[in-house]
Amino acid sequence: MSIFVTVGTTSFDELTETITSKPVQKVLQSQGYDKVTIQYGRGKHEVENIKSPSYSVVGFRYKDSIAEDIASADLVISHAGAGSCLEVLGANKPLLVVVNEMLMDNHQIELATQLYRDGHLFYCTCSTLLETLKSMDLSALKPLPSPKTNEFTENIVSYFKL
Amino acid sequence: MDIWLWALLSMLILLLWILMRRLTRNKQPTRILAIAGSGGHTTELMRLLSSLPTNLERHYVLANTDHFSKKKILELESKISTKSNHFTYVIPRSREVAQSWISTIFSTLFSLLYCIPVILKSKPDIILCNGPGTCVPICYTALLFKLFGICRGEIIFVESICRVTSMSLSGKLIYPFATKFFIQWPQLLENYPKAIYLNGRIC
């Protein structure tokens, strides 16, 4: 099983460091994960690649599209960015959002919190990541309903007679 | 007697002119002015635009420092049509992230100067925006020109999906004047009853 970690367009060194820390890697391995891919953006340090037959870690800074990485993952661990959250949930993948405590007043966290309340994702900080990984039950997550784009189109088209 | 005749004649000419303008306007495609912001705003805006009919004449406003939006606009346009029938206007960014509020006031006033030619050139029937700072001076300029009958200037505002419990500043400033004001979470209805909630997110 594989995990994809994404920090978005900025950096979130605390998250990359926590993910690659010994205790977290141990837990991940014990849960059957054997491949971790990390998109670490503008992070200070490059992620050290690990290649062993039973466990691998691969890092990259940016890609034009991370859709494939999301699609091939069994679990996505992401920063609280709205774009990332919606892309992962739209691809119907289990999502664990790690909130950056340095950006607490950021409005993107409002969205992640609401999606957590509605049961679409799990939610933690770097300091609670280990505990959350141990305790969360991915089968409890509910899929995100599809967007009401058609209703929006109809509303506009009929009002403005387009 | 002469004065009355002249008055009547000029009234007739004015009426004829308005009628002619209406007739010629009807033949033109509906013009939509989409206001791009940074990052997430633009991604949402492009999704909204691509859900609308393709026969609209699309005009775009973007900030001079915004290369991401420029790329996204070209991507969308190449998807819609092979012949490029869109117009782009570049204006200075009204508010950088983390800019102080005092200097924001000045840079917003400054950007008003750039908004006037944008509205005069694009004469938008509809303005589509989803919250970047740039949309406030553009919308206000359009409202001013709407008073003089220069453009139809109807505003469609879509509040960002990130706004769950509180409205953005742009949203608050545009809410009283918008023709259609969409929100993506029902919690906002309490304080903004005129807003439209479609029982879920839009994009």
UniProtKB/TrEMBL annotation, chain A:
GO biological process: dolichol-linked oligosaccharide biosynthetic process
InterPro entries assigned: Alg13-like (IPR039042), Glyco_trans_28_C (IPR007235)
Enzyme class: transferase
Single annotated GO MF: N-acetylglucosaminyldiphosphodolichol N-acetylglucosaminyltransferase activity
Subcellular location, record wording: Endoplasmic reticulum
Domain Glycosyl transferase family 28 C-terminal: 3-150
EC number(s) reported in the record: 2.4.1.141
SUPFAM superfamilies named in the record: UDP-Glycosyltransferase/glycogen phosphorylase (SSF53756)
Keyword Cytoplasm: no
Keyword ATP-binding found: no
Alphabetic keyword roster: Endoplasmic reticulum, Glycosyltransferase, Transferase
GO CC field: endoplasmic reticulum
Organism superkingdom: Eukaryota
Family: Belongs to the glycosyltransferase 28 family.
Name of protein: UDP-N-acetylglucosamine transferase subunit ALG13
Organism from which the protein derives: Ciona intestinalis (Transparent sea squirt)
Gene: LOC100181785
TrEMBL record, chain B:
Keywords assigned: Endoplasmic reticulum, Membrane, Transmembrane, Transmembrane helix
Membrane-topology annotation of the record: Single-pass membrane protein
Residue intervals passing through the bilayer: 6-23, 101-120
Broad class of where this protein is predominantly found: endoplasmic reticulum
One GO BP: dolichol-linked oligosaccharide biosynthetic process
The keyword Cell inner membrane is annotated on this UniProt entry: no
GO CC annotation terms, alphabetical: UDP-N-acetylglucosamine transferase complex
Listed InterPro entries: Oligosacch_biosynth_Alg14
Subcellular location: Endoplasmic reticulum membrane
Protein family according to the UniProt entry: Belongs to the ALG14 family.
Protein name (Swiss-Prot/TrEMBL): UDP-N-acetylglucosamine transferase subunit ALG14
Organism for this UniProt entry: Ciona intestinalis
High-level lineage: Eukaryota, Metazoa, Chordata, Tunicata, Ascidiacea
